[in-house]
TrEMBL record:
Active site annotation, chain numbering: 513, 558
Domain Glucose-methanol-choline oxidoreductase N-terminal: 14-322
Keyword list, A-Z: FAD, Flavoprotein, Signal
Family annotation (SUPFAM superfamilies): FAD-linked reductases, C-terminal domain, FAD/NAD(P)-binding domain
Source species, domain of life: Eukaryota
Identification of the protein by name: Aryl-alcohol oxidase
Taxonomic source organism: Pleurotus ostreatus
CC cofactor: FAD
PANTHER family xrefs: CHOLINE DEHYDROGENASE, MITOCHONDRIAL (PTHR11552:SF147), GLUCOSE-METHANOL-CHOLINE GMC OXIDOREDUCTASE (PTHR11552)
Record domain Glucose-methanol-choline oxidoreductase C-terminal: where: 429-567
This protein's record includes keyword Signal: yes
Lineage: Eukaryota, Fungi, Dikarya, Basidiomycota, Agaricomycotina
GO molecular function: flavin adenine dinucleotide binding; oxidoreductase activity, acting on CH-OH group of donors
Family under the similarity heading: Belongs to the GMC oxidoreductase family.
Length: 580
C-alpha cells in the first residue's frame, strides 16, 4: 500500500528497505515482492505521483512544477563563466522518471561491454543484459495508431516487460523535413532505423516512455495499482532519509534513519533483516553515505562527521552530459507546436483532445528525432586527442547527439515559430563531485554541493563546439532554405571556433544524466564504492546500491533505460543471494 503517514506503517522491521522510490527503487520494490513471503518498505522523499497532473501529460515535460523536483543548482561552473545552473532531479514517486524527457535510449553495445570489462563481470555485457532490457520494455502502439513500419525494428523490442515505450503518437509537420534533410546531407545524418539495436549512430525517430497518451514512469509502471496493492509491499512517501545506521558488529548497516518533517522531526528509524538497498540516485545516495560517516575519512573529519568507513570514491567521479540549446526562428506560417503554449485557446483545445480520446499534440515529448554521431579519428586528432585515444566506449558509440524539436522547447515560447536542436555531449570527460554543504554546521537535509565540472577539459568544450557546427550544418540543408529564417541570439553570428565556444559556455546546462558517484569497480579494487554485484565495498555488510550512481562511465545516451537494467539485474542478484 501507499502510506502518507509513518504512524500507519505496519512494522519497524522489513526484509528489505529501499531508500528512494525512483527508477532503481521502484524496480526493486516490484521484483522483490513477486515472492509473497518477502516484505519490502520503500522510503521516498517526495510526494505521491497520484495528483501530480503535469507528470502525466507527456507534452507538459517543460512545465513540471517545482514541488516535484529537488530544486538543486550546481556550484559555480568555471567552464561556464561561473554560472550556477539548475540541476533537476525528481522529488516524487517514480523519481526522475516522473519528470524526465522520456527519451528511451539503451546505450550502445560498446557501453555495456565496457561496463563488463571495467568491472570484471561479464554479466554487465551487452549480450548478457538483453534479458533485462526485455524485462523492462513493453513496446506499445503510439496514441494515433499510425503505421510504424519503417520507423523502428520490431526484432529488437519486447512487448512483455513492465514499462511502456512507443514511437511518437502525434505527427509533426517538421518530421518529413528532418528526414529529407538527412537524405540531402548524408554522412552522420544517414537514416538509422532503430538506435536501440546496440549500434545507435545516425538519424532516427525518437522512442519515448509513453503509454498511449500518458507518461510511463517507474511509478505508473513498476508501482502501478496491481503491484502497489501487494500486501507485502509498503511505500511511504514524504519520508526523507538522513542516514543508514550501523546495527551489528563490524560494518553492518541495516538501520535507516528518516523523518517526515525535516525541520521539526521526529527522526524515526526502521531496520532491514536482509538488506538496505540505496536507490536515492546520483545525488541522494552519496549524500546519505557521507551523512552516515561512509566516504573519504579525512574529508569527513574535516567537516565534523565521525568517519566510520573509509571509502574515498563516495561522491567523486560525478559524470554528466552537458547540453547546449540552439534555436532558429522559422517562417511565420510554419506548422510548429509553439501555439500550444502561446495561445490559450490552442492549449484548451489540446487539453480537450487529450482528455476526450487521448490524442493530439499533448501525447508526445517535444523532441521528434535524434542524431547520434561520432567524430572520426582525424577530427579527434584536430581537437587534440592523441592517436588511438577515444572518449567513447567503442567504434559504434556516439560522442555527440542532436535532439530535434518542432518548436521552442520551453514552457513559454516567445512570439514566432521555432525550431530547436539541443546538442548533447554524451562522451564528456570532465569529472565532478557531490560534497556536503556544512556551512553553519552539519545538517543532513541541506542540499549538497553539486559540481559537474562542465567544460573543464579541452575535449568537452571543443567536442560540443563541433556539435553546434553540426546543428548549424543540419539547418543549412536545402530543404530548410525557405523554412529557417535565422538563429536566435549570438548563435546567428557565432562563426569562428572561439565564438562558438563562447556560445557554448554561455548557453549550456545539464541534460540531467549524471552518473558515477558510487561507482562499480572490480572486487578488490582500491577505487569504487560497490562491487559488480552492487554490494558495498569497504567491508560494509547489509547494503547495496541500485541506481544510476553505480555506472563507472556514462552510457553514451540517456540514462533511464540503462538504470532500469541496473535495477532489473540488481533484483536478480539480490534474489540469488537470498534464494528468493
Ligand atoms: C529533467 C530530467 C530529464 C531527463 N531526461 C531523460 C530522458 O529523456 N531519458 C532518459 O533516459 N533519462 C533522462 N533523465 C535521467 C533519468 O531519469 C535518470 O537517469 C534515472 O531516473 C535515474 O534513476 P535513479 O533511480 O538513479 O534516480 P531517480 O529516478 O532520480 O530516483 C531517486 C529517488 O530517490 C529519492 N530520494 C533521493 N534522496 C532521498 C532521501 N534522502 N530520502 C528519500 N528519498 C530520496 C528521490 O526523490 C527519487 O524519487 C532525465 C532526468 C531528469 C531529472
Amino acid at each position: 500500500a501507499l502510506y502518507k503517514n509513518a504512524a500507519d506503517l505496519p512494522n519497524v522491521s522489513y526484509d528489505f528497505i529501499v531508500v528512494g522510490g525512483g527508477v532503481g527503487g521502484s524496480v526493486l520494490a516490484n521484483r522483490l515482492t513477486e515472492n509473497p513471503s518477502t516484505n519490502v518498505l520503500v522510503l521516498e522523499g517526495g510526494p505521491s505521483n497520484e495528483d501530480a497532473f503535469e507528470t502525466k501529460v507527456p507534452f507538459f515535460v517543460t512545465r513540471i512544477p517545482a514541488q516535484y523536483t529537488w530544486n538543486y543548482t550546481t556550484t559555480p561552473q568555471v567552464g561556464m563563466h561561473n554560472a550556477e545552473v539548475p540541476f533537476a532531479r525528481g522529488f516524487v514517486l517514480g523519481g526522475s522518471s516522473s519528470i524526465n524527457g522520456m527519451f528511451y535510449t539503451r546505450g550502445s553495445s560498446d557501453d555495456f561491454d565496457r561496463y563488463a570489462e571495467v568491472t570484471g563481470d561479464s554479466g554487465w555485457s551487452w549480450n548478457n543484459v538483453q534479458t533485462y532490457f526485455a524485462k523492462n520494455e513493453k513496446w506499445t502502439p503510439p496514441a494515433d495508431g499510425h503505421d510504424t513500419t519503417g520507423q523502428y525494428d520490431p526484432s529488437v523490442h519486447s512487448t512483455t516487460g513492465i514499462n511502456s515505450y512507443s514511437l511518437s503518437g502525434h505527427h509533426q509537420a517538421l518530421d518529413p523535413l528532418v528526414f529529407q534533410a538527412g537524405q540531402e546531407l548524408g554522412g552522420i545524418f544517414d537514416f538509422k532505423l532503430d538506435y536501440n539495436d546496440g549500434t545507435p549512430l545516425g538519424l532516427g525517430w525518437l522512442q519515448a516512455a509513453i503509454n498511449g497518451s500518458h507518461r510511463s514512469s517507474a511509478a505508473t509502471s513498476y508501482l502501478g495499482p496491481q503491484f502497489i496493492s501487494r500486501p507485502n509491499l509498503h511505500v511511504l512517501v514524504n519520508a526523507r532519509v538522513s542516514r543508514i545506521l550501523q546495527t551489528g558488529a563490524g560494518s553492518t548497516f541495516q538501520g535507516v534513519e528518516y523523518t517526515q518533517d525535516i525541520n521539526n522531526g521526529p527522526l524515526r528509524s526502521v531496520s532491514a533483516t536482509k538488506e538496505v538497498l540505496l536507490a536515492a540516485g546520483v545525488i541522494g545516495t552519496p549524500q546519505i553515505l557521507l551523512n552516515s560517516g561512509i566516504g573519504d575519512s579525512s574529508y569527513l573529519s574535516s567537516v565534523g562527521i565521525p568517519p566510520l568507513v573509509n571509502l574515498p570514491s563516495v561522491g567523486r567521479n560525478l559524470t554528466d552530459q552537458p547540453t547546449t540549446g540552439c534555436l532558429w526562428n522559422v517562417r511565420a506560417d510554419a506548422d510548429t507546436f509553439d501555439p500550444v503554449f502561446q495561445e490559450q485557446n490552442v492549449l484548451d483545445d489540446a487539453m480537450d483532445e487529450w482528455n476526450e480520446d487521448g490524442t493530439g499534440p499533448l501525447v508526445v515529448t517535444p523532441i521528434g528525432e535524434v542524431v547520434f554521431f561520432r567524430l572520426n579519428e582525424t577530427e579527434r586528432a584536430n581537437l587534440g586527442l592523441p592517436a588511438g585515444v577515444d572518449t567513447a566506449a567503442g567504434p559504434n558509440t556516439p560522442h555527440l547527439e542532436l535532439a530535434i524539436g518542432n518548436g521552442f522547447v520551453s514552457p513559454a515560447p516567445p512570439p514566432g515559430r521555432w525550431l530547436t536542436i539541443s546538442t548533447n555531449l554524451v562522451s564528456a570527460t570532465s569529472r565532478g563531485s557531490v560534497t556536503l554543504d556544512t556551512t553553519g554546521g552539519f545538517n543532513a537535509f541541506r542540499a549538497p554541493h553539486i559540481d559537474p565540472a562542465f567544460y573543464t577539459t579541452d575535449w568537452d568544450i571543443k567536442a560540443m563546439r563541433e556539435a553546434v557546427k553540426a546543428a548549424k550544418r543540419f539547418v543549412s540543408a536545402p530543404v530548410f532554405q525557405n523554412y529557417v529564417v535565422e538563429a536566435l541570439g549570438t548563435l546567428a553570428t557565432a562563426e569562428t571556433d572561439e565564438e562558438i565556444e563562447e556560445y557554448v559556455r554561455s548557453n549550456s546546462g545539464t541534460t540531467a544524466h549524471p552518473v558515477g558517484t558510487a561507482s562499480m569497480s572490480p572486487k578488490g579494487a582500491q577505487w569504487g564504492v560497490v562491487d559488480p554485484d552492487l554490494k558495498m565495498k569497504g567491508g560494509i555488510k547489509g547494503v547495496r546500491i541500485v541506481d544510476a550512481s553505480v555506472f563507472p562511465y556514462n552510457p553514451s545516451m540517456h540514462t533511464m533505460a540503462p538504470t532500469y537494467v541496473i535495477a532489473e539485474r540488481g533484483a536478480d542478484l539480490i534474489k540469488d543471494t537470498w534464494n528468493l
